[in-house]
Amino acid sequence: MGSRREFMTTAAAVLSGLGLLSQPLLASKALVVAETVAKLPKSTPRVEAFAAAAGSEFTVHDPSGQVRLTLHTVTAGAQAAEFNSFSLLFKGHPAQHLADDIYRVSHPRLGELEVFLSQIHRPGVTQSYEAVFSSRKVAV
């Protein structure tokens, strides 16, 4: 079997050839999204693990350096029949700004994972960021 990149390139070409990605720009964007999804961790820590880490510091690895954020709140989301969801609210120093993007985030107990962080625009003395997780429930 080939690499993920080969698979994604072939899939984008096939979809484009079928007219499902009729514009080259859409095909290239689909490839970027597919490659990003392929890089996501196979398992994400559960809500309980994040709840136990509330109040602790996480390191966000940004191309311009490291940014430290504190996990402020862990909120369980609406539970659907097939999915679990929860969100994390991080707070950071007001002078540090992160654009909405996928970042490598590390924590001493939870290890490293890639997370999409979205800035929440709220007035105050700190920067706030949210990460939302949703995963398919596993049958036991």
Structural features:
140 residues; alpha+beta; Elongation Factor Tu (Ef-tu), domain 3; 2 domains; six-stranded antiparallel β-barrel; 3 helices; 26% helix; globular
Structure in words:
This protein has 140 residues and is α+β, with helices and mostly antiparallel strands. It is built from three helices and six strands. It has helices spanning 4-17, 24-39, 47-52; strands spanning 57-62, 65-76, 83-92, 101-107, 111-120, 127-136. A six-stranded antiparallel beta barrel has the order 1-2-3-6-5-4. A hairpin with a 6-residue loop joins strand 5 and strand 6 (127-136). Helix 1 runs antiparallel to helix 2 (24-39). The model is unreliable at 36-41 (pLDDT under 50).
List strands and helices in order, with pairings.
Elements: H1 4-17, H2 24-39, H3 47-52, E1 57-62, E2 65-76, E3 83-92, E4 101-107, E5 111-120, E6 127-136
Helix pairs in contact: 1-2
Question: Biggest β-sheet: count, sense, barrel?
Answer: 6 strands, antiparallel, barrel
Tell me the strand percentage band: 35-45%
Q: In whole angstroms, how far apart are the ends? A: 30 Å
Radius of gyration: 18 Å
The ordered string of helix (H) and strand (E) elements is HHHEEEEEE
Number of strands: 6
Helical coverage, percent range: 25-40%
Major sheet strand order: 1-2-3-6-5-4
Architecture (CATH level 2) name of the largest domain: Beta Barrel
Tertiary shape: globular
Q: Any low-confidence stretches, pLDDT <50, length ≥5?
A: 36-41
